[in-house]
What does this fold into?
Amino acid sequence: MNRRDALKTIGVMLGTALTPSLAQAMEAGYVTPAAGEPLRAFTPPQSELVATLAELIIPATDTPGARAARVDAFIDGLLVDIFPYEERQRFLVGLADVDERARAATGKPFLSNAPEKRLALLSALEEESRHAPPGSQPFFPWLKELTLTGYYTSEIGASQELKYVHIAGYYDGDVPYAQVGRAYS
It folds into this structure.
């Protein structure tokens, strides 16, 4: 799957176009920093929070999840290499807000909550973003966009989650989803 096809796939999954900075990064061929490279935008606790949030969005099932695809490293690199300073700061503020909301709701930081509480908090953020006033920039949709992009442009997302068909063959527009299984890349 080439990057342009990956971007189209992600846009369809999100039901929207990618933000300009992210579209620019993908068109330029941005890839996740190599394993072992130090974090540049996140502190280790922030990286763990992003990895946990991403794993809640794309959990490990019969295929690896967002944590295995190193989505946190992908986002960390984007924040430093691609996004303007203002966007990086907005992301970090949104991340801190997740922790503050968790403390307000449960008295504990997000990562100290039980998995069901984490999921409930993330679901509340998603629901809140659906009712955000026009022109506002809620954190959750942006996090979700970055997570999906990081995952489906990773080797894990593109080769283990999606099916790759080099030559697709004939077109049959009426195939039950249960028969297909996974989406094709």
